[in-house]
Amino acid sequence: MAFNLKLVLKALLFSSNQPLTIKDIQAVFTRFHEKAQVPASLAEGGDAAEVPADDAEVAAAALNPVEGSAEAGIVEGGALSLTPEDPELYSEVPALITSTQIREAMDALAAELRAANDIYLLIDGASGYRLVTHPRFARWIRILRDEPPPVKLSQSALETLAVVAYRQPVTRSELESIRGVSAEAGVNRLLEREMIYVVGRADLPGRPLQYGTTDKFLEFVGVKSLVELPASDVLSPRQIDEWLNHTANVPAPSDAEMGLPLEEGEAPSPLSEPVTLEPAGLATEPAAPDASFSDTATPDAPPEGSEPTPKPQPSADNA
After folding, report:
1. Tens digit of pLDDT for each residue in 96-130?
2. Cα 173 from chain centroid?
3. Looking at 99-103, 143-147, 179-183, which range is the least confident one?
4. In whole angstroms, what is the distance from residue 110 CA to residue 131 CA?
5. Which residues have a Cβ under 8 Å from the Cβ of 270 and sit 6 or more positions away?
6. Cα(138)–Cα(143) distance, rounded to whole angstroms?
7. Domain limits, the chain
8. Do 172 and 184 meet the contact criterion of CB atoms below 8 Å apart?
């Protein structure tokens, strides 16, 4: 019977409490062949001095199990586990398992679990492959572990998380400029949930903190890397840069737009004709005085058609 790679991978996934990467699985097969050479050399009567002491003791115990022990029951065909002579598991084990073979076997195993509607699911996360319980059994597991139900992220926190994911590394001031509101509460909540972390400090005045997403965020959205995030025309770095530059260079509003009184010579609106002011150093010639407003008083002329009033003649006494 040919070697069943898929069955061995399933056993490794069940026995591991950490995600398994392709390198971890390849290292298991490498150690399998290294340990398989030790009993073979002892069975052929090889020099035991060349074998390390620890490996020699393990190999001797495997060849001569103590009577009544669990190992002896396994070798004699006990029903607790498969025997080492099982050809499906221990015969014709390839010396090299390629990453393509591991991926194909994992994909087939994941498809079988989904088709069987099993309680387990195989996911390929950012940290590697692992078996997880189906989400529909989450309530029973929380009751078993006496855990509270998970707290959902608010809409504000989700928006902040999306900006960090597409813009990282990003500072808090950039978050507030993009969203238009304070980002302190959302950033603190995401830090508590370990969705984001402090990447470093920006080369800006004050050296503000920069934030980025964690591997837990990748598991939260179900992707292995940030490259797999859906493309967004709204949150693309180029458009965000243009928007930030535009908002940073907005001209200050005029007094008329703010409802303030206009200064001397200022037009009431930008659409009015420009007003030119003469320099203060240039003096204009005074206008000619109006004859009707002359300072010199003139005697009133007699009305037309009337005789002039005769002047009094001097008397003889005065003469």
Report:
1. 889 999 999 999 999 999 898 889 899 888 888 99
2. 15
3. 179-183
4. 9
5. 254, 256
6. 9
7. 5-135, 156-248
8. yes
Query: Could you give the dihedral angle defined by the CA atoms of residues 29, 32, 34 and 39, in that order, rounded to the nearest 10 degrees?
Result: -160
Percentage of the chain modeled with pLDDT above 70: 57
CATH class of domain segment(s) 156-248 = mainly alpha
pLDDT of residue 68: 47
* Total Cβ atoms within 10 A of residue 106: 22
CA-CA distance, 240 to 179, in Å (whole number)?
11
Residue/partner pairs of 304-311 with CB below 8 Å, 24 or more apart = none
Does the fold of domain 156-248 match that of domain 5-135? yes
- Partner residues linked to 310 by β-bridges: none
What is the per-residue pLDDT across 219-256, written as a single tens digit (0 to 9) for each? Answer: 888 888 888 888 766 556 666 666 566 655 656 666 66
Q: DSSP secondary structure string, the chain?
A: ----HHHHHHHHHHH-SS-B-HHHHHHHHHHHHHHHHHHHHHHTT--GGGS-HHHHHHHHHHHSPPTTSHHHHHHTT-SSS--TT-HHHHSS--S---HHHHHHHHHHHHHHHHHTT-SEEEEEETTEEEEEE-GGGHHHHHHHHT-PPPPPPPHHHHHHHHHHHHH-SEEHHHHHHHHSS--HHHHHHHHHTTSEEEEEE-SSTT--EEEEE-HHHHHHHT-SSGGGSPP-SSS-HHHHHHHHHHHHTPPPPPTTTTTPPPPTT--SSTTSPPPP---TTPPPPPPPPPGGG-SS--PPPPPTTPPPPPPPPPPTTT-
Q: Which residue carries 């703010």 as its tokens?
A: 258
pLDDT digits (tens, 9 = 90+) for 24-71: 999 999 999 888 776 555 555 555 445 455 544 544 444 454 444 444
Q: Is the pLDDT of residue 193 over 80?
A: yes
Site of tokens 């950033």: 187
CATH architecture, range 5-135? Orthogonal Bundle (1.10)
